[in-house]
TrEMBL record:
Full protein name: Nodulation protein
Family as reported in the entry's similarity comment: Belongs to the transferase hexapeptide repeat family.
The keyword Transferase is assigned to this record: yes
Record key words, sorted: Acyltransferase, Repeat, Transferase
Gene coding for it: nodL
Provenance organism: Methylobacterium oxalidis
UniProt xrefs under SMART domains: Mac
Amino acid sequence: MLAGELYHAGDPEIQADLAATKAWLVRYNASLGLAPADRRGLLVERLAEVGPDAVIRPPFFCDYGFNIALGAGVFLNFNCVILDVVPVRIGDGTQIGPLVQILTADHPRDPEIRRSGLEFGRPITIGRNVWIGGGAMIMPGVAVGDDAIIGAGSVVTRDVAPGATVVGNPARAVVPKAT
């Protein structure tokens, strides 16, 4: 699965990891009233990396957690979803609005293979100092460059260049107006 190869989600080892994450999510999502240091301790328990001052406001949802790496000062607002069947890396200082979905899970295009229940994942990398507006969706395999902006509600299906602003469905670069 982590290599991006086809896998069966019903595999017992995968199901055990999912169950452990569900139990962790119950604890994390009940932590909104705790001090930030206590919430950070919970994140460190499950996530691959948690940089200094990284914050995820509960409720939060993920598949495994241990495939998620957060840089320093990363902020995820309420109700974010990260389907982390493969690595998700979020760079320092990135701010992510509420209801954002970061989706590494993918499915075969061939209907016979898809019918067999096989899936795969493609990693997502989000650079430093990125701003992702509320309700945006980052699709499997996308890389977002440093200093990019993704407009609220956008569906990002392709890589985003450093410093670019993208909006819409599918997200497209906004061309700055000449002054």
